[in-house]
Design a protein that fits this description.
CATH topology of the domain at 671-863: Serine Threonine Protein Phosphatase 5, Tetratricopeptide repeat
Strand order of the largest sheet: 1-3-4-5-2-6
CATH class of the domain at 671-863: Mainly Alpha
Oligomer: single chain
Shape: elongated
CATH architecture of the domain at 671-863: Alpha Horseshoe
Helix content: 55-70%
C-alpha cells in the first residue's frame, strides 16, 4: 500500500493530491477513468481543479483504486469540498486481537452504505448470544470504515442512563450550542436536530435491551446509518437483522492463539494449519479447547487472558478446564477491558432476567441444561410436558404458552429456534454454566423428569423405518441423560428408554453404542430395581442378541436364560415377555446348529403369543418366521413354506406391502425357492427385499450383507458370475467393517467367493479363500462343529481336482465324520459332501464305494429337493459318467438325458452346467467310448 511520505512534497489541494497518487501508481488519466467508470476528461478536470467529485463515495473509490492508506485517504477527503474529517465519539479502543468475521463485516458494509441510503436511514441489528462478539464486531466496523462516514457516534444502550450519557457526550463532540445546558432533554433534542439535518453519519447503539428505546431517542427524520447490537432476535420492522453465530473453528483457534500471545495477530489460517506438523500437541489442544467452548469469543478471550497472565501452557489450560470448568468460566482476569463480566456472570445475569420475566421459560432452560445442546425437540416440552413438573405441565394443553416461553429465551439470545424441524438449540457454554449452578438434588430431579418424558416419546416398535426419524430426534438427548445421571439415581423410565434407544442403535448396526446402553440399563436396573425385577430382561435380551451376533454364544445363552428365568419367576410362564425370551434363546440355539433344542422354544413362543395376542397379531409372525428358517436350515422345506407364507400374510395385513417385515418374509421365501431350484420365482423376491432394505438402511448395513448374499447366490447358480462376484465382495466388505476379519460371517462370505471361483475353474484363487474360511470357522466354533464341514468339503473338492487325492480323502473323511456326529445326517446339504467323496472314490478306482456314495447322495437330493432340482441333476450327471466308465452305456444315457432335461429347464440352455451335460449326452449317444467330465461344483454355498 502506498505511503504519502514517498512524495517529495505534500500537495495541499485535491487536484495535486490526486495527480501525485495517480503518477505513483503509474496510471494515465484515461486508465484511471476507465477503472473508475468515468470519462477521461473527468480526471483531467479534477486534477486541474475545475470541479471536484460529487460524492464522498466516489472519493473513497478513488482512494481504493490508487491504493491509498488511511492517512492519505483522510487527506484526500479533507482536500475535497464534499467531506470534512469525521466527528468521532467512540469511547472504546480498537481490539488489536480482532480476528476473522470478514463475511459479517462485509454484510454490514453493504447494508450500512450511506450512499445507497439516499435520504433513508439504514438500520441494521447485529443480534446473538451474550459473549458472541457483537460489540467487538461493531467496534471493528467503526474503526475500519470510519472514513466512509461524516461522523461516527457510539451509544451505550443497556439502560436509559447510559443512552442519555452517550448523547450528552455526542453534543460535546459536535460542539452544539447549549451543550452545557442543565436541562438534558434540550441537549438531547439538539443532538436529534443535528441528526435530522445532516447525513452520512454512523450511529452505533451497543447492547440494546429494549428496542423501543430506539423509537424514544432517535429523531423521526434522519439520513444516516444505524448499527444496533442486541441479544433480541425479534426486531419487528425496526431493522434488518444479522444473526451472529460463534466463530468458525479455525477462526476461534487463530483468535485464541493470538489472544494468549502465543502467535502474532498477523498470523494467517494457513500458518495455524502448519502447527499440526510443527507443534501437534499445541494444535490439538487448541482445537479441543475451541470445541469445548463452542468457539464463543468471550470464553476464548477469557482463556487467552488467563494463559497470558499466568504463563500457563495452552495444553495445561485445557487439562485444567476439564477438571475445573466452573472456576475458569467465572475467571475473567485482571483486565476485563470492554467486557467486564465473565462467561458465568454473563449467562447467570441472563438467567436472572429470564426468571424475572417468566418462570416457565426458566424451568425450560434448567431442563435443557441436561439435554444435548443441539436440535432439542419441541414435542419434549409439549407432548411430554406432563412429565416435566408442575411449572411446565400447562405447555401440554396450550402450545402458545410454549411459544411465549421460547420468545423470552430468544429475546435474550439464549436459544435458537429451528421452525422447519420443530427444534431449538442453545450454546454448550450456556448449558455448562447452568449445569454447574445446579445442586445434585436439582440435577437428579430434572434427569428423572426428562427420563420419563423421553421414555413417553421414544417409539416402542422400531422395526419400521417410519419410526426411525423420531428415534433419531430423541437419541442424542437420551444419551445425554444417560451420561449425566448416576446409576443409583436412575429410574424405571430411564431403564426403559435406554433399552429402547439400544434397540434402535442395534437396528441401525451401531453395535458398540447399543451394548453400552444395554449394560448401562442393566447396571441401573440392578441398583434401582433389584436383581430380580423383570424389566432387567429387556437389557439381558439385547445383550444376548449382540453377544450371539459376535459369536460369543456361551455368554449369549447365559444372558438369555437369565432373562427367561427372571420373567418366568416374576410374570408367570404364560406372559408375553416370556415368549420374547424364548424366541431369543431359540435364535441363539439355531445359529449354533442346536436345532433340536431350538424348535420347542419357538413352538412355545408361538403358542404364548397366539393365546395372549391372537393368531393374527404381528408379534406372532416373529417366531413363525424364525421357526420356518429353522426348518429351512434342516432341509424341511415343505414344513418351512407354509410358516413363511403365514408370517408374510400377517405382516402384510399389519404393516403394508412395502414394510421391512414384509421384505424379510419375501427374502425368506426367496431363500426357500432358491433351495428348491425355483430360480425364476426367487429372483424378484430377492430384488424386492433388497430394494426395500437399501432404501431404509443404505448399502453398508449388515442386513444388506444378508440380502446381497441371497441375490448373489442366485446369480451364481444361474451362471451369472459377473453379477454375483461384486455382490459377494460387497458382503465381505460389510462383514469385515462391522465385525472384523475373524468373524464367522466373514467366513461365510469367503466360502461363497471360493465357490464362485471354483465353479469358474479358478481353483488357485478358490483354495486360499476356503482355507481362510476354514481357519475362521474352526477358531469360532471348534474343529468338530457342523459349520466347519462346509469349508472342509470345498477344500477337499479343490484338492481332488488338483490330483491331491490323499489330502482330499483326509478332508472329506473329516467332514463326513462331523456330519455323522451331528443329528442331521439326512440333510440335503450333506449330499454335496457325499457327491464329492464319490467323485474322489471314482478317481481312485474305488468303484463300489463310489456307487454307494452316488446313490446315497441321489436319494437325499431326490427326497428333500425333488427329482427336478439342479442339485439332483448334478449327481445324475456325475453318476452317468461313472456308469459310462463301468461300461453301462444304456444306464449312462438315461442318467445324462435326465440330468440334461433338468438343467435345461432350471438353468437354461446356455448355463455352463447345461452345456457340460449336453456334451456328455452327445458323446454317449454318438461315441459311447471314453469318459467325459464337466464342471460339477460342490454346491455348498452358504447363506449368512
Amino acid at each position: 500500500m502506498g505511503n504519502i511520505e514517498d512524495l517529495q512534497t505534500i500537495p495541499s489541494n485535491f487536484g495535486e493530491l490526486l495527480k501525485s497518487a495517480r503518477k505513483r501508481k503509474r496510471l494515465t488519466q484515461q486508465q484511471l477513468a476507465h477503472q473508475l467508470g468515468v470519462h477521461s476528461n473527468t480526471i483531467s478536470s479534477w486534477e486541474l481543479g475545475t470541479y471536484l467529485p460529487a460524492t464522498r463515495g466516489l472519493i473513497l473509490e478513488l482512494a481504493c483504486l490508487l491504493a491509498l492508506d488511511r492517512q492519505e485517504t483522510r487527506e484526500l477527503l479533507e482536500a475535497s469540498l464534499t467531506a470534512l474529517a469525521p466527528y468521532w465519539s467512540v469511547p472504546l479502543p480498537r481490539n488489536l486481537f480482532f480476528t476473522g468475521r470478514e463475511e459479517i463485516l462485509e454484510a454490514l458494509r453493504t447494508q450500512l452504505d450511506v450512499d445507497q441510503a439516499g435520504t433513508f436511514t439504514q438500520i441494521c441489528a447485529l443480534h446473538g448470544l451474550g459473549g458472541v462478539g457483537k460489540t467487538q464486531i461493531a467496534l471493528e466496523y467503526a474503526y475500519r470504515y470510519e472514513l466512509e462516514y461524516s461522523a461516527v457516534f457510539w451509544i451505550g444502550a443497556e439502560t436509559v442512563e447510559q443512552i442519555v450519557s452517550s448523547l450528552l457526550r455526542i453534543a460535546q463532540v459536535l460542539q452544539l450550542p447549549g451543550r452545557d445546558d442543565k436541562d438534558q432533554q434540550r441537549v438531547i433534542a439538539a443532538v436529534q436536530r443535528w441528526l435530522e439535518t445532516h447525513n452520512q453519519w454512523l450511529l452505533i447503539w451497543d447492547n440494546v435491551e429494549d428496542l423501543a428505546l430506539l423509537d424514544r431517542f432517535l429523531p423521526s427524520l434522519r439520513a444516516g446509518a444505524i448499527l444496533v447490537t442486541t441479544r433480541c432476535q425479534a426486531l419487528g420492522t425496526r431493522a434488518r437483522g444479522i444473526d451472529l453465530p460463534p466463530m468458525e473453528h479455525e477462526e476461534g483457534m487463530l483468535f485464541l492463539l493470538c489472544r494468549a500471545k502465543i502467535l502474532e495477530p498477523q498470523t494467517t489460517r494457513e500458518q495455524i494449519r502448519q502447527l499440526t506438523a510443527l507443534t501437534p500437541s499445541l494444535y490439538t489442544a487448541t482445537s479441543e479447547l475451541v470445541t469445548a467452548m463452542g468457539a464463543l469469543p468471550l470464553a476464548l478471550d477469557q482463556a487467552g487472558a488467563y494463559i497470558e497472565e499466568t504463563g500457563c501452557s495452552l495444553p495445561d489450560y485445557l487439562h485444567r478446564y476439564e477438571q475445573q470448568r466452573a472456576y475458569l468460566l467465572d475467571c475473567r482476569g485482571s483486565q476485563p477491558n470492554d467486557h467486564p463480566h465473565s462467561v458465568t456472570t454473563t449467562f447467570l445475569l441472563a438467567m436472572e432476567q429470564v426468571a424475572q420475566k417468566q418462570s416457565t421459560a426458566a424451568d425450560m432452560l434448567w431442563a435443557c441444561a441436561l439435554l444435548h445442546a443441539e436440535a432439542i425437540p419441541e414435542e419434549l416440552f409439549v407432548k411430554a410436558a406432563s412429565y416435566l413438573g408442575p411449572q411446565l405441565e400447562p405447555l401440554g394443553t396450550d402450545p402458545t404458552q410454549f411459544d411465549r416461553a421460547i420468545a423470552v429465551l430468544k429475546g435474550l439470545a439464549l436459544v435458537q429456534r429451528q421452525a422447519e424441524t420443530h427444534t431449538f438449540s442453545l450454546h454448550r457454554l450456556v448449558q455448562a454454566v447452568l449445569y454447574d449452578q445446579m445442586s445434585e438434588h436439582q440435577q437428579v430431579m430434572w434427569l428423572r423428569r426428562l427420563s420419563a418424558a423421553l421414555n413417553a416419546l421414544f417409539p416402542e416398535d422400531i422395526s419400521e423405518a417410519s419410526e426411525w426419524e423420531q428415534c433419531e430426534r430423541l437419541l442424542a438427548h437420551v444419551l445425554a441423560v444417560a451420561v449425566a445421571i448416576p446409576d443409583h439415581a436412575g429410574s424405571q423410565e430411564l431403564i426403559r428408554v435406554l433399552c429402547k434407544a439400544a434397540n434402535y442403535l442395534h437396528e441401525r448396526a451401531q453395535y458398540g453404542q447399543a451394548a453400552e446402553l444395554y449394560r448401562r440399563a442393566l447396571s441401573i436396573g440392578e441398583q434401582v430395581l433389584g436383581e430380580e425385577h423383570p424389566d432387567l430382561a429387556h437389557a439381558l435380551d439385547g445383550l444376548a442378541f449382540l453377544s450371539g451376533e459376535q459369536g460369543r454364544y456361551e455368554q449369549a445363552e447365559a444372558l438369555g436364560i437369565r432373562a427367561l428365568n427372571l420373567r418366568e419367576r416374576t410374570l408367570g410362564q404364560g406372559a408375553s415377555q416370556v415368549a420374547s425370551s424364548l424366541n431369543t434363546i431359540a435364535i441363539l440355539y439355531t445359529e449354533q446348529g442346536k436345532h433340536e433344542q431350538a424348535e420347542p422354544l419357538f413352538l412355545r413362543a408361538i403358542h404364548i403369543w397366539e393365546q395372549g395376542l391372537g393368531a393374527q397379531h404381528p408379534q406372532v409372525a416373529v417366531p413363525l418366521n424364525r421357526l420356518a428358517l429353522l426348518y429351512w436350515r434342516q432341509g424341511r422345506y415343505e414344513q418351512a413354506e407354509p410358516l413363511f407364507k403365514r408370517a408374510l400374510h400377517i405382516w402384510q395385513q399389519a404393516y403394508g406391502p412395502a414394510s421391512l417385515q414384509v421384505a424379510q418374509s419375501l427374502y425368506n421365501l426367496a431363500l426357500l425357492y432358491w433351495k428348491e431350484g425355483k430360480y425364476e420365482q426367487a429372483e424378484p423376491l430377492f430384488q424386492q427385499a433388497v430394494h426395500v432394505w437399501q432404501q431404509a438402511y443404505g448399502l453398508e448395513h449388515p442386513i444388506m450383507a444378508y440380502a446381497l448374499t441371497g441375490l448373489a447366490i442366485l446369480y451364481a447358480e444361474q451362471g451369472r458370475y459377473e453379477q454375483a462376484e461384486p455382490l459377494f465382495q460387497q458382503t465381505l466388505y460389510i462383514w469385515e467393517q462391522v465385525w472384523g476379519p475373524k468373524h464367522h460371517q466373514v467366513a461365510v462370505s469367503l466360502q461363497n467367493l471360493g465357490e464362485l471361483a471354483a465353479e469358474q475353474g479358478k481353483n488357485e484363487q478358490a483354495e486360499p479363500l476356503f482355507q481362510r474360511a476354514l481357519d475362521i470357522e474352526e477358531q469360532v466354533w471348534g474343529p468338530e462343529h457342523l459349520k466347519v464341514a462346509y469349508p472342509l468339503n470345498s477344500l477337499a473338492d479343490i484338492y481332488a481336482k488338483q490330483g491331491k487325492y490323499l489330502l482330499a480323502e483326509e478332508l472329506f473323511q473329516r467332514a463326513l465324520h462331523i456330519w455323522e456326529q451331528s443329528l442331521e445326517v439326512d440333510h440335503p446339504d450333506m449330499a454335496s459332501l457325499l457327491n464329492g467323496l464319490a467323485n474322489l472314490s471314482f478317481k481312485q478306482g474305488k468303484y463300489e464305494r463310489a456307487e454307494s456314495l452316488y446313490q446315497r447322495a441321489l436319494r437325499l437330493r431326490e427326497e428333500h429337493l425333488g427329482q427336478c432340482h439342479p442339485q439332483t441333476a448334478e449327481t445324475l450327471h456325475d453318476l452317468a459318467i461313472f456308469q459310462q466308465k463301468l461300461g453301462y452305456l444304456d444306464k449312462a444315457i438315461v442318467l445324462a438325458d435326465r440330468a440334461l432335461s433338468i438343467r435345461m429347464q432350471s438353468l437354461g440352455d446356455a448355463h455352463p452346467k447345461t452345456v457340460a451335460t449336453r456334451e456328455l449326452y452327445t458323446q454317449l449317444v454318438r461315441e459311447p467310448v471314453g469318459i467325459g467330465s464337466g464342471p460339477t461344483g460342490s454346491g455348498t454355498r452358504l447363506l449368512s
